[in-house]
Design goal:
Helix content is 34%, strand content 19%. It is an alpha/beta fold. Residues 2-242 form the GP-PDE domain.
Length: 242
C-alpha cells in the first residue's frame, strides 16, 4: 500500500508551509506531511523553504536577517503569517512529518532542536514521528549526535547514485542501503524511471522508494503501478482517486 505525503501542504488556495496549507492537506486525508525548517536571526525556528521571502511575499528579506518579532509582522501573498516551530508543534505534532533542515541555517536549527528535546513530548515527536532530510554529512552527524536514533532519509547525491545504478540494472554499484528511503523522480532527462523493475531493484536490497513529486495524474498512476512505498506530492487533491 503506497503512503501519500503532502509536500509543504496543499497550496491550491494557500501558501506553502502555512497553517492554511497544512489544514487543507489534512482535510484531504493526509496524516503524513513534509515541511522546511530555517532559523531567524534571534534563533527561532520558522517554517519556510527559501532563504528569502521574495517568492511567497512582497518582502524580499532573508529569513536569517529577521527577528521573530519582525517576521510575525510579515504577511504572505495570500495574507497568511509564517508559522513558527512552537505553533507547529501545538497543532501538528500528532501527525507524521519529514523535516527538511535547510543547510544554510542548519547549525542554528539543530541547536534549537536540541533545546526543544528537553521537553519530553517534543522529544517523543522528534524521535518517533519525524524523519529528517539533511543536506550534508556534517549536519547529519550532528543531528545523530543529539538523537542517535534520528532517521535521516538518503541525501540527494546518494539518491542520484542509487537511481543511476538501479536504472542500468546494477543496483549493487549504487550502495543502496537496507531500510533506507530513496527519492526517485518520475523521469530523468525524459527517461521514465518509476517502473516496476526499477523499484524491485531497490526492494531486493531491502530499501524503500519515495516517488518524488509526480505532477500529472499519469505520473501518479505510474508511481503507484511501479510499487513505490511512498509518494511525496504537491497534488494532494489526487489522494484517494487511485
Amino acid at each position: 500500500m503506497t503512503e501519500w505525503i503532502s509536500h509543504r501542504g496543499y497550496c491550491a488556495d494557500a501558501t506553502e508551509n502555512t497553517e492554511a496549507a497544512f489544514d487543507a492537506a489534512i482535510d484531504l486525508g493526509f496524516e503524513h506531511l513534509e515541511t522546511d525548517l530555517r532559523c531567524t536571526r534571534d534563533g527561532h525556528i520558522v517554517l519556510c523553504h527559501d532563504a528569502n521571502l521574495g517568492r511567497i511575499s512582497p518582502d524580499k528579506w532573508k529569513i536569517s536577517d529577521y527577528t521573530r518579532r519582525e517576521i510575525e509582522q510579515v504577511r504572505l501573498f495570500n495574507g497568511e503569517p509564517l508559522l513558527f516551530f512552537d505553533q507547529f508543534l501545538d497543532k501538528y505534532q500528532h501527525l507524521r512529518w519529514i523535516l527538511d533542515i535547510k543547510p544554510d541555517s542548519a547549525e542554528q536549527t539543530l541547536q534549537q532542536l536540541k533545546k526543544w528535546q528537553q521537553q519530553p513530548e517534543v522529544e517523543h515527536f522528534l524521535r518517533n514521528r519525524a524523519r529528517y532530510l539533511m543536506w550534508g554529512s556534517t549536519h547529519e552527524e550532528r543531528l545523530k549526535s543529539q538523537m542517535n536514533d534520528a532517521f535521516c532519509l538518503a541525501r540527494d547525491k546518494a539518491c542520484y547514485r542509487a537511481g543511476v545504478a538501479a536504472l542500468v540494472g546494477i543496483p549493487q554499484l549504487g550502495n543502496i542501503q537496507d531500510n533506507q528511503y530513496y527519492a526517485v523522480p518520475p523521469n530523468l532527462k525524459g527517461v521514465p524511471l518509476l517502473r516496476p523493475k526499477l523499484v524491485q531493484r531497490y526492494h531486493q536490497k531491502g530499501a524503500k522508494v519515495i516517488g518524488y513529486l509526480p505532477e500529472s495524474v499519469k505520473e501518479h498512476e505510474q508511481a503507484i503501478k511501479a510499487g513505490v512505498d511512498e509518494i511525496l506530492t504537491n497534488q494532494a487533491q489526487l489522494r484517494g482517486t487511485f
